[in-house]
Design goal:
This protein is an alpha/beta fold. Helix content is 56%, strand content 9%. The protein folds into three domains: 71 residues, Orthogonal Bundle (Multidrug-efflux Transporter Regulator, Chain: A, Domain 2), CATH 1.10.1660.10; 81 residues, Methionine synthase domain (Methyltransferase, Methionine Synthase (B12-binding Domains), Chain A, domain 1), CATH 1.10.1240; 126 residues, Cobalamin-binding domain (Rossmann fold, 3-Layer(aba) Sandwich), CATH 3.40.50.280. The strands form two sheets. The protein has a five-stranded parallel sheet with strand order 4-3-5-6-7, covered by helices on one side. Strands 1-2 form a two-stranded antiparallel ribbon. It is elongated.
Length: 313
Amino acid sequence: MTDSSGKPRYRINTVSKKTGIIPVTLRAWERRYQVLTPNREENTYRLYSDHDIEVLRWLKAQVDAGISISRAAAELKENQMAGINFEPLPESAPQVMKVDDNTARMLAGELYNMLVAHNEVGAAAIFNQAAAALSLSVLLENVVIPVLVRIGEEWYLGRLLVATEHFASNFLRARLMGIFQKIPLKRSVKHILVGGAPGEMHELGILMMAILLRNAGFNVEYLGPDIPLEDLVDYTSEVEPHMVILAATTREAAEELTRFKQKLERAKKPTLFGFGGGAYDYFPELIKATPGIYLGKTLTQSVETVNSHLQPW
């Protein structure tokens, strides 16, 4: 090894900036592979040395080269036991945090663990780290959706209490609504109404769609779940949006939408109608039975479909 100082001096956020490894990954590497044992201050904050940073840079270089972290950690320990030194990697100009599928899965796992433990503070910290490190689409499709699916499955199997499912859903809804409201609202661009079909009470999927569409440059008005169609037709006639998008996760809700385009034609101005949601994955025959534009199976596909029919400007 090198003669770098072993004196603890850096907190985890500083180490993250110096190495390009997000804090949740650093903690996971320490816990799972015991690659480092940072000192702790009296207030329990981790403190890392220059030597620790060299080790982390070396590990990251191995992972970036395609070596698994488990193999890299094992090689590090083998070299340490054999007394083999490695040359420290130079501190390059601004480190870019490389986030791959493994990192997204790790973040999803950490977030799930915090939510089922009802640890709001911990869940907020993990969510914030994920939001800072990932693009919006990756955050939603590779972290939030897998967590929601896993929680739903565990609840269905009786392994989670209803209280836990509600806690997790409400936590994520609040975070997602916060993201939606922080995206600048543009009035002079194409206007889209987004909501849930009649009887559709699952709103997080359609809220995520609203987030991505507003982020793509559209003027998106989020109406929430369970929208009565007659009321929506009246509102559409009043505000004359360029498109209405409704989502359904159950067959009953999807069947309500088979008649919506006909109702929408009563509006003063022609309006595009798009639909999607889990119901169309389970009952694909409803896609042809529903007049309108099927948006696709994923959030990314849905945004691309909307863009292909309706450019923001």
